[in-house]
Amino acid sequence: MSGWFELRKNSGGTWRVRLKAADAQTLLDSGLYPDRTAAEEAIALFRDNCVHQERYQRRMDSGGKSYFHLRAANKETISVSHLYDSEPTLELAIETIMRVGATQLVKEA
User: Fold this and answer.
1) Nearest CA among 18, 32, 36, 37 for reference residue 103
2) CB burial class (10 A; 0-12, 13-18, 19+) of residue 5?
3) Which neighbouring-strand residues pair with 77?
4) What b-and-e string marks burial along 56-87, b requiring 16 or more CB atoms within 10 Å of the CB?
5) In percent, how much of the chain has pLDDT > 70?
6) Banded pLDDT at 38 (limits 50, 70, 90)
7) Are strands 106-108 and 77-80 parallel, antiparallel or unpaired?
8) How far apart are CA 61 and CA 102, in angstroms?
């Protein structure tokens, strides 16, 4: 499965990164970055860490929905997922992100 990172400049001048699957579905959406360089550094950090199963910290919110924090080797949170209806759906999302997130392809939107 191939995918790409979408790099987008917002109207306020900040930048956002999205990880997209081959079907253009958004797998992860980042926070805001002050400039393109910071957004590109975030992509590199994500690539380095998304392939390590142990860096996904699984959690459950108060409503019973599953989500994860992707953490760097130093335990810093890189990304927080959206909510999933079940643990199997969460695990499938993590597997997909591990495959797609190592892509070198970046498209500017």
Assistant:
1) 18
2) buried
3) 71
4) beeeeeeeeebbbbbbeeeeeebbebeebeee
5) 99
6) very high
7) unpaired
8) 28
The answer to whether the beta carbons of residues 1 and 102 sit under 8 Å apart is: no
Indicate the residue type of 22.
Answer: A
pTM of the entire predicted model: 0.90
Q: Which residues pair with 4 in a beta bridge?
A: 20
Which residue matches tokens 């360089």? 37
Q: Residue for token digits 């892509």?
A: 103
- DSSP assignment of 30-96 equals EEEESSHHHHHHHHHHHHHHHT-GGGEEEEE-TTS-EEEEEE-TTS-EEEE---BSSHHHHHHHHHH
| C-alpha to C-alpha distance for 109 and 98, rounded to whole angstroms | 23
**CA-based max dimension of the chain:** 38
